[in-house]
Predict the structure.
Amino acid sequence: QVHLVESGGGLVQAGGSLRLSCAASGISFRFATMGWYRQAPGKQRELVGTITSRTSSNYADAVKGRFTISRDNAKNTVYLQMNSLKPEDTAVYYCNLAPSTISWGQGTQVTVSS
């Protein structure tokens, strides 16, 4: 059974940092391309960035240079380091496979105050 469990969100001031984690089970994690996604209030869910099994990463223009995705295959965990946060980064953040997704976890709320 597939489980994706995100954690690490919270309230932070603009310019601050957060590190999100996502623990995965029920998938062949070490071979999977993983993605971080986010959904802001009233908006569609969007892809923030991806990391391949060979740790090659790509990012949406809105977060490039500020966010970094990494993974620990021994722990079946993918991370999202978010620096220089902006109020427009406020959203619920999710991890999933990329580009084709499976069932979603509960996400973790990130709120950036101005």
